[in-house]
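Dear colleagues,

I hope this message finds you well. In preparation for our joint manuscript, I am sending the Permease (Sphingobium baderi) sequence together with its predicted structure, so that both groups work from identical material. I would be grateful if you could confirm receipt.
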Amino acid sequence: MLAFLASALFVLIWSTGFIVARAVVPHGSPELVLAVRLALVTLVLGAAALCARQALPRGKRLALHLAAGAMLHGVYLTLSWWAVDHGMPAGIMALLGALQPLMVAVASVIFLHEHLPARAWTGLGVAIVGVGCVLAPAIERSGTGSIAILPAVAALLAIMGMAAGTLIQRGAIAGDGIAISGAVQNGGGALVAIAAALFMGEARWDNSAMLWVGLGWSVLGLSAAGLSLLVWLVRHQGPTRMSMLLLLVPPLAAVEAWLIFGEKLGPVQLGGFALALGGVLLGRSRGKPRAGDVVEPA
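The corresponding structure tokens are as follows:
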């Protein structure tokens, strides 16, 4: 039950990232907003770790935490936001995000020597098709012919960065406390975002109420709560099963955009949502274990 509630809460929180980005980016340069967000999260989780008396990792483990944060928070967020800000349609960016679970699944088999049953691969494929159905109208409206090469490369590198950061969570750093792990990793992501902000040289910040509300939710909801849940799920369910949850994010974000912004949600999208949900449930289901299968704690 705890694993189910954590999974549902993670998907709900993570799906708001698309909504927050749409609301905040018009009021501040993406790199600057991300730099401020990740720096504040580092302070919040650092204070929580201090209260919980969680020791700061040292040596190789500290370097791994920083690398995971640089990939998962810094590279993924800065490159994906930059790509969208430079012409990559949000629908296509979200569809590319559906490749992340596939990357994680393949990498887990190659590098972590996991054995994934056929139902996991089948569920992954069904869910990706469902995500495509949900996003098809947005992609058709925006078109794909006008996408420049740099935003496309940045988008792919962003997804690869998130996959790499997710896999690192499963290694030697899995035994460290959630709060101190989040603090150090967000610190690593903040360094990337700060470097990107300095490189871009744009400091747009209109100080509007929408900007501060979006930033507050990004810090406390998306980063502090959402990323802590992500780390917990990777450690308790494995990178592949956790990554499959990300396939539910674009469909749920489409529903939220329909409720908040009045965007259209047609029969194809509703059918795609059902496919994505069914595929994720199939891929994460536990059949009868076979020899060589990885059995992970719930």
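For the figure legend, we might mention the following. Residues 10-284 form one domain. The chain is about 75% helix and 0% strand.

With kind regards,
E.M.
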